Amino acid sequence: MENNTNFRRFSGATLMILGVVIVLFALVAFLSDGKPVLGMSINKAESAAPFIVGMIFLITGVNLVRES
């Protein structure tokens, strides 16, 4: 049982970190005014998709850690 708990915490922490990185990327892309961010040119409308994906990862990671 403890093995499953450790795996859930590790997965949750990984998802949280990934979610934070993606959300920060989306916010920087939103504020960049069309300039390339990490070699990718993303306008304000396109920055909504990574923000939503990052929030899903972040919320899922928090729930995994909290419930284990």
Automatic annotation (TrEMBL):
<feature type="transmembrane region" description="Helical">
    <location>
        <begin position="12"/>
        <end position="32"/>
    </location>
</feature>
<keyword id="KW-0812">Transmembrane</keyword>
<keyword id="KW-1133">Transmembrane helix</keyword>
<protein>
    <recommendedName>
        <fullName>DUF3098 domain-containing protein</fullName>
    </recommendedName>
</protein>
<keyword id="KW-0472">Membrane</keyword>
<feature type="transmembrane region" description="Helical">
    <location>
        <begin position="47"/>
        <end position="65"/>
    </location>
</feature>
